[in-house]
Amino acid sequence: MPTIVVDVMPKAELLDPQGKAVAGALGRQGSTRFTDVRIGKRFELAVDGPADEAVLAEVREIAATLLSNDVIEDVVAITVVD
Amino acid sequence: MPTIVVDVMPKAELLDPQGKAVAGALGRQGSTRFTDVRIGKRFELAVDGPADEAVLAEVREIAATLLSNDVIEDVVAITVVD
To answer: What InterPro entries has UniProt attached to this entry (chains A, B) (predicted)?
Structure first.
């Protein structure tokens, strides 16, 4: 059964307070190599049947409407695994 | 500047209520091809300098300690992009 992974990230021009908090924690624990951290979401959709073009088109529609808020987020990748 | 992506998902044996809610919403709107949805986190760490083995080792350590809770989550992938 294929799985389709949808990655959603906060838009680059928006602050990401959760990411800033993690970046601050990294700095305080001495990991100074990391200049920025951003935190988004990873959705794994299990598909019943083949992950063909029709399913991918449906996933693109779902990603844009249900899985992300296009005011503040971008769908950065849709990938088929398995 | 390379970016290291860390993907964290809820463990397979745990319920994922957020994922179940999305799966339910998909079913109600007529997208019946999707049998399961799970929702995890995607961290993007911007690295100052090359993403060499030392940095990756540090990221593995950070992923296991700071970015995930190993009681309920698995680090499923650590990937270098750019």
So the answer is: PurS, PurS-like_sf
Judged by a CB distance cut-off of 8 A, whether residue B70 touches chain A is: no
Residues 6+ apart with CB under 8 A from B78: B4, B5, B6, B7, B56, B59, B60, B63
In chain B, where the domains are located: 3-81
Q: How confident is the model at residue B1 (pLDDT cuts 50, 70, 90)?
A: confident
Mutate one of B37, B75, B78 to test the A interface: name it (highest A CB count within 10 A). B37
Give yes or no for a contact between A70 and B30, defined as CB atoms under 8 angstroms apart.
no
Is A3-81 a CATH 3.30.1280.10 domain?
Answer: yes
